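Bug report

Summary: structure tokens for Transposase differ between web form and batch submission.
Environment: batch mode, default settings.
Steps: 1) Submit the sequence below via batch. 2) Compare with the web form result.

Sequence submitted:
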Amino acid sequence: MICDGGGIPLAVRLTGGNRNDVTQLLPLVEAIPPVRGRRGRPRRRPDVLVADRGYDYDTYREALRRRGIRPLISRRGTRDSNQAVRWVVEQTLALLHQFRRLATRWERRTDIHHGLLTLATSIICWRRLPNRIRQEL
């Protein structure tokens, strides 16, 4: 899962439990939808990506730089300097685990589990919207 600074999930990928997280970094960055807001061309990707030590590979750092994203990834074997920023992702993961069907996977079919995951992220986004925006919708 990749989320913005406010804890709103931007993109989610479903993989097996024995897959390394870093293998899904670039597909998650590519899956971020365009951000609407100001006039002009919508921004496609974030400016900065904050991650923990598990994503500390020079090839992925360089791939992010080629896409115009500045990686803030702590080096392995050093003190973690991004811990104060990464709590937002941990909070969003905790919100996903409030849905019992996602905390423990009982479904054998991945399409059902992916549907429940998409529904849960939609509910999280809906709850994060301010009331004034919800009334306009």
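Above is the batch result. After comparison, the two runs are identical; trailing whitespace caused the diff. The chain has a mean pLDDT of 82. DSSP finds six helices and four strands in the chain.
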